[in-house]
Q: What sequence folds into this?
């Protein structure tokens, strides 16, 4: 786990919460997004907790740069003060895997990190839906529509994408569709490949912006 925030107290608080867990190790800290790429290459974290607003390079640009230049990049968890923030949505659009509020309780912080690391369900799906409704293109994003048209999802893959957008895990989708979990994992992988998304969050945002799934 790598912590990136320009406030030392925030980093210290996150470190204390996370390092109290037997399965989470904080391997480094940075005070600005500009330091992220060399540090990621050095310590190879599985997850980066990234402040969305920093003085030299903010979390949005740092996310774009990290995904553009680092092979097999880590999961990115944006840390923010405000939930309904256009900066958060832009960070998700840039490739972040989810977001976490700085005022979150310790148990919520740990849950968010584990969920992002596992990548089997969407973090705070209702909040992502709300952000898409407010800051997305209302289904009018031509690029996103073109992506979905080219994807040619099967009927079952479309069902899986809609359930992903609701935040269901693979096990929950399997129960809903009365199929095996491995079958769902196969469908999810196919959806991500066809949509060109690196994770569920990116696939769901494309689904919202294309109008394939209504965020309201």
A:
């Amino acid at each position: 786990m790598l912590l990136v925030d320009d406030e030392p107290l925030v980093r210290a608080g996150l470190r204390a919460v996370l390092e109290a867990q037997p399965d989470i190790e904080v391997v480094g800290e940075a005070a600005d997004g500009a330091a992220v790429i060399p540090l990621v290459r050095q310590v190879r974290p599985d997850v980066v907790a990234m402040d969305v607003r920093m003085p030299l390079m903010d979390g949005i640009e740092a996310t774009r740069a990290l995904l553009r230049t680092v092979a097999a990049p880590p999961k990115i968890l944006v840390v923010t003060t405000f939930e309904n923030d256009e900066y958060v949505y832009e960070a998700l659009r840039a490739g972040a895997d989810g977001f976490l509020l700085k005022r979150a309780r310790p148990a919520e912080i740990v849950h968010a990190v584990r969920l992002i690391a596992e990548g089997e369900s969407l973090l705070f799906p209702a909040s992502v839906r709300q952000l898409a409704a407010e800051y997305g293109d209302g289904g009018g994003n031509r690029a996103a529509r073109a992506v979905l048209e080219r994807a040619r999802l099967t009927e079952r893959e479309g069902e899986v994408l809609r359930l992903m957008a609701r935040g269901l895990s693979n096990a929950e989708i399997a129960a809903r569709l009365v199929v095996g979990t491995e079958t769902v994992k196969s469908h999810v992988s196919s959806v991500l490949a066809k949509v060109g998304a690196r994770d569920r969050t990116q696939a769901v945002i494309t689904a919202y912006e294309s109008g394939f799934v209504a965020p309201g």
